[in-house]
Design goal:
Structural class: alpha/beta
Shape: globular
Strand order of the largest sheet: 1-2-3
Distance between the termini: 34 Å
Number of domains: 2
CATH superfamily of the largest domain: Dihydrofolate Reductase, subunit A
């Protein structure tokens, strides 16, 4: 969050965050202060205004607006828990780094981050850590189109 200039959220995530985060006001918690003070961009065609200041609603061609914003100098714009905007940004090759927080559970259904038909992308692991709670925090650099090959057997696997 220290590197972020703004937050990008989908409508559902924004609605939940806007309901709860303004009431979390621990002045000793730097994460809370950052979440509440950063500009929020909300990708939505149904929301017309936001209640969690400062909020800007992005409607219409959100990808084009974010492409323009990305060309400007500044820090990161993380996407938190918003699969639909993340999918659009991924398809538009607007994501430089993917930070996945993986919980040690198998849900079996629900919204997928990478839907069927998603454009393939290469990822390079930058870092991985597992705090005591068991979550896996994985940071990947998006490297562009992945290289494909055919696995023909164990001889294809080499150790480095």
């Amino acid at each position: 969050m220290a590197l972020a200039d703004a937050l990008l959220l989908g409508r559902r995530t924004y609605t939940a965050f806007a309901r709860d985060w303004p009431h979390i006001i621990d002045p000793a918690d730097p994460f809370t202060a950052r979440m509440n003070s950063l500009p929020k961009y909300v990708a939505s065609n149904s929301l017309v205004e936001g209640s969690w200041y400062p909020t800007t609603i992005l409607s219409g061609d959100v990808r084009a607006r974010l492409t323009e914003h990305k060309s400007q100098p500044g820090g990161e714009i993380p996407v938190h828990g918003s699969a639909t905007p993340a999918q659009s940004l991924f398809a538009g090759e607007l994501i430089d780094e993917l930070r996945l927080v993986i919980a040690p559970v198998v849900v079996g259904s629900g919204r997928r981050l990478f839907p069927d038909g998603c454009a393939p992308a290469g990822l390079r692991l930058i870092s991985c850590r597992t705090p005591p709670g068991g979550l896996s925090l994985n940071n990947y650099q998006v490297t562009g189109s992945p290289a494909f090959s055919t696995y023909t057997g164990v001889s294809d696997v080499t150790s480095h």
